[in-house]
Amino acid sequence: MQRASDRWISIGLSLLLHAALLAAVVWGWLLFRRPPGRAPTLAIEATVVDARTLKGAQRPPEPQPPAPPPSEPEGPPQPTPAEVAQREQQQQAAAAAEKRAAEERAAAEQAAEARRQEEQRHAEEAKAQARAAQEKKAKEAAEAAERAAAEAEASEQEAELKRSLAAEEKTNVARAGPALATWQAQIAAKINRAWLRPPTAKPGIECMLNVTQVPGGEVTQVTIGACNGDQAVRESIEAAVYRASPLPPPPDPALFDRNLKINFKPD
Predict the structure, then answer these.
(1) What string of pLDDT tens digits covers the 267 residues of the chain?
(2) Strand partners, 47
(3) CB 220 within 8 A of CB 241
(4) Are the beta carbons of 220 and 246 closer than 8 angstroms?
(5) What count of Cα atoms within 13 Å lies in the side-chain half-sphere of residue 190?
(6) Exposed/middle/buried for residue 266 (C-beta within 10 Å: 0-12, 13-18, 19+)
(7) Residues 129-158, buried b or exposed e (16+ Cβ, 10 A)?
(8) Distance between CA 251 and CA 179 in Å, rounded?
(9) Which residues have CB under 8 Å from 267's CB, separation 6+?
(10) What are the extents of the domains in the chain?
(11) Sign of the CA dihedral running 27, 28, 34, 36
(12) Considering only the top CATH level, what class is 178-264?
């Protein structure tokens, strides 16, 4: 690549050469035009130029090697301080925005959790109130049922008592009359008929018999109380009671008694 200084040097040398040629032409023309004689002395200022110099000056400048292209920095260009400051501001703003967003999310989550807990608390309170109401209702129903059962039992007991009193009164009335004595005489007569008199039995035997019977007159147990007979007599009378089973029924059902006391006096 030709430099600007080389170009100006060439132009200067060219002008200098043309000036010398022009001066030589003028000098020759003046010499041929004037008559011979003493030639006036003309002072001409000239510069002697060596032809080699002119040849060297006229030679085109040697081409210079191309300048190497400016080296480009490897990687992205380094940011300017203003760009660095701007990036820092942007990063700080982004970090602040992210922090605010995180705080807002945390606040929203806390609010949602608080609402959920509050709703859960209200639901549990409602369930507790419902359970309490159900328990109270069930308790009141149970108490009412107990009161009704107690009243019914009391009424039944009162009715039973009335029935018992009426039966007892009826029994007392029946026992006070001749019906009881008649029934006991019938039982003693049947036992007497079933008695097999042992040889050791003496006249005037009198024994108190304790007889247990069931409805229908079936004898279940016999014991001999006070008796003036010997063991054979006692055993024979006990066997006679079992043979007399079932015993005659009472003329009045109110006279029936499971445990009878019969005064046995055989003929």
Answers:
(1) 556 666 777 787 888 888 888 888 877 777 766 555 554 455 555 555 555 554 554 555 566 666 665 555 566 677 788 888 888 889 999 999 999 999 999 999 999 999 999 999 999 999 998 999 999 989 999 999 989 999 898 888 889 888 878 777 776 766 667 888 899 899 999 999 999 999 998 889 999 999 999 999 999 999 999 999 899 999 999 999 999 999 999 988 888 899 999 999 987
(2) none
(3) no
(4) no
(5) 17
(6) buried
(7) eeeeeeeeeeeeeeeeeeeeeeeeeeeeee
(8) 7
(9) 192
(10) 4-58, 84-176, 178-264
(11) positive
(12) alpha beta
Residue the block writes with tokens 């030709």? 2
Strand partners, 264: 207
Beta-strand ranges (E) seen in the chain are 207-213, 219-227, 259-264
Q: The pTM is what?
A: 0.39
**Two structure tokens written together for 213:** 């019977």
